[in-house]
Each structure stands twice: as structure tokens, then as C-alpha cells.
Write a structure and sequence with these properties.
By secondary structure, the protein is mainly alpha-helical. It has one domain: Growth Hormone, Chain: A (Up-down Bundle), CATH 1.20.1250. Helix content is 77%, strand content 0%. It is built from 9 helices and no strands. The N and C termini lie close together (9 Å).
């Protein structure tokens, strides 16, 4: 729940930020920030201070970063792919799912390898992600924004807009399905 709740609650905010900024720069920052929770959790485990509260804070931190990374990655994809967006989305989704499965398999080895070693490996992988993104060209916002004005729009209208957008529908539906499967699989 600590991982999923921030993702669901902050996904639209993450998309709004991604729409208005250079996605490459954002992803580099997010990946580097995402190295901190695993390293901090590793320090806590190594010092034998692990508690439920620490795990909840870790989950909230990673869930929040996930809510920022996913829409930013989608926005970046729409900026670097001119043709074949559907195929690019499918390949990206498959790659993410394979990486998640590998992560789950590695987590099963925590008893043999050690949780701290796995958390350090996770942080290194995230840092390598930042390095990979840094090799991309800049991806500035393509939107031309009018001067800021306050508009009252019901939440339902905003949500319908997200579901209608072909660029945001797939991560949002994937997040909803992942949440349903995760909650259903845990008996919650």
C-alpha cells in the first residue's frame, strides 16, 4: 500500500510536471533521487534497526518517485518517437515487466546474497539508468503554454481527459491493473 498509494495519488501531478519540463533532465534527477531510499534502507538493515515504520517510509518514497518517473518516461517516449508509438509503448512495457520479474527473482535470493547487497545493486542500477538517460538528447516541453490563469475544472473532467489521451491511458491503466493484482495477490 505504501508503494501504490502515492503512485495513484500523484500520477497526474507527475504527468503535469513532465508536460511542462525537459523530460531528460527530470528523469536524470528522479533516477538519482531514487538511489537514496535503497541506500538508506540498506544502512538501516546493516545497523539492525529495521522497523515497520522504516519500511513504510521507504515505500512512500519509492511510490512517490514512481509517480513522477512513469509519466515522465511516457512523455519522453512521445517526444523521441515520431513513428510507431504503439510498438515503442509495447516494447517499453514488456521491458519494464521483465525487469520487475527479474527484480522479484533477485529479491528471492536475499537470504543467500543479503538484502544490503541487493539494495546497493538496486541503487547502482538506478544510477546507471540516470547515466543512460543522460546520453539522450534534450527533450524540452513541446507544449506552448498560455499565461497562467485559474480555471476551476471538476476532477472527473481531468480524469476523463487522462483516459482519453492515448499517451497517458496506457501507464494509468497499467498502474490500475498492477494495483489490483498486487492487492488481490496479497489477500488485502
Amino acid at each position: 500500500m505504501s508503494l501504490v498509494a502515492p503512485s495513484i495519488a500523484l500520477m497526474l501531478l507527475g504527468g503535469a510536471v513532465a508536460d511542462r519540463a525537459d523530460c531528460r533532465t527530470l528523469l536524470i534527477r528522479y533516477h538519482l533521487l531514487a538511489t537514496l531510499p535503497p541506500l538508506a534502507l540498506g544502512v538501516v538493515i546493516a545497523s539492525h534497526s529495521l522497523s515497520h515504520a522504516v519500511l513504510i517510509v521507504y515505500g512512500l518514497a519509492m511510490g512517490t518517485l514512481s509517480a513522477l518517473v512513469i509519466p515522465t518516461r511516457v512523455a519522453l517516449l512521445t517526444r523521441v518517437i515520431s513513428r510507431g508509438l504503439g510498438r515503442a509503448v509495447a516494447v517499453t512495457t514488456a521491458t519494464e515487466l521483465i525487469a520487475q520479474m527479474l527484480g522479484i527473482m533477485l529479491a528471492g535470493l536475499a537470504g543467500a546474497i543479503g538484502a544490503v547487497s541487493l539494495l546497493v545493486a538496486q541503487a547502482i542500477t538506478l544510477a546507471l539508468g540516470a547515466l543512460a538517460v543522460s546520453r539522450l538528447s534534450a527533450a524540452p516541453s513541446q507544449a506552448v503554454h498560455a499565461p497562467a490563469r485559474v480555471v476551476s475544472v471538476p476532477c472527473a473532467t481531468d480524469t476523463r481527459g487522462v483516459w482519453r489521451s492515448p499517451y497517458r491511458r496506457w501507464p494509468r491503466s497499467r498502474m490500475s491493473m498492477s494495483s489490483a493484482l498486487a492487492c488481490g495477490g496479497s489477500g488485502a
